[in-house]
Amino acid sequence: MKQLIFAANWKLHLGPDGARQFLEAFSQHYDSVADREVWFFPAAVSLRTVAQSIQGHDYMKAGAQNVFGEPKGAFTGELSVPMAQEAGAQAALVGHSERRHVFGETDAETGKKVRAVLEGGLVPLLCVGEKLEEREAGGTLAVVQRQLGVLDGLSVTDLGQIVVAYEPVWAIGTGKTATPSDAAEVHAAIRKWFVDKGVAADEVSILYGGSVKPTNVASLVSEPDVDGVLVGGASLDPEMWATIASVDID
Ligand code: 13P
């Protein structure tokens, strides 16, 4: 059975000491649930600590928040996929809204990063989502399809490795969440995009992100096309994150 994925994106929070303390506290509050995995995306400097702290718990994974598209070279300040892997990463976020809209990453850069992550043997967690003005103009599906377009040309096998997170930009850190039915519509379109390329429908995992909280997680993850969540703010409190990751799904 496909596992649900509960993923924590810690953004620019929790250095190695804070990450270790977080995971100690989290383990006091969380008992593994058979149908799901819990993924952590710490700052790069905390990756090894997280990977070591979760060792022996196969249902937990560590991932990088961002990687560079080249494996090595004169690229001061960047993190390569092989280095992230050496530090214990099994996955990497690619194209997070903050990378696109705060740091100006283009679709072309995002596509290059996805390929680098696949080549390095990690799971790419590709983030897509529209801005408020794009939603209001009725352009949500067109934006998401354009962002998925960076995957054009990948083999069906590679496409089957990719996890997608639908994170509407207007819902990130704002307290506004897409309604479960709004999210479901976009998730269904994303799944169809993969199926049209030849990937089996149940092979694609599509997470929802944007102001996920203990109060709304159940209704979101109960939607048939929502295979988990990618959580920012509410993943920074170990008890709250344990509550979210333990939620009962009907
Ligand atoms: P929030 O949960 O803080 O809205 O952040 C969502 C997000 O960007 C996860 O990647």
Percent helix: 25-40%
User: The CATH topology is what?
Assistant: TIM Barrel
Major sheet size, sense and barrel closure: 8 strands, parallel, barrel
Q: Whole-number radius of gyration?
A: 17 Å
Q: What does this protein structure show overall?
A:
Strand 1, helix 1 and strand 2 form a beta-alpha-beta unit. The protein has one domain (4-245): Alpha-Beta Barrel (TIM Barrel). It has helices at residues 16-29, 47-53, 81-86, 97-101, 107-119, 132-136, 140-148, 156-161, 180-196, 217-221, 238-245; strands at residues 4-9, 36-41, 60-64, 91-94, 123-128, 163-166, 205-209, 228-231. The model has no long low-confidence stretch (mean pLDDT 97). Helix 1 packs across helix 11 and helix 7 (140-148) runs parallel beside helix 9 (180-196). The protein has an eight-stranded parallel beta barrel with strand order 1-2-3-4-5-6-7-8, surrounded by five helices. The chain is built from eleven helices and eight strands. The structure holds 1,3-dihydroxyacetonephosphate.
Condensed summary:
The chain is an alpha/beta fold. The protein contains 11 helices and 8 strands.
Which terms summarize this structure?
single chain, 250 residues, alpha/beta, TIM Barrel, 11 helices, 8 strands, binds 1,3-dihydroxyacetonephosphate
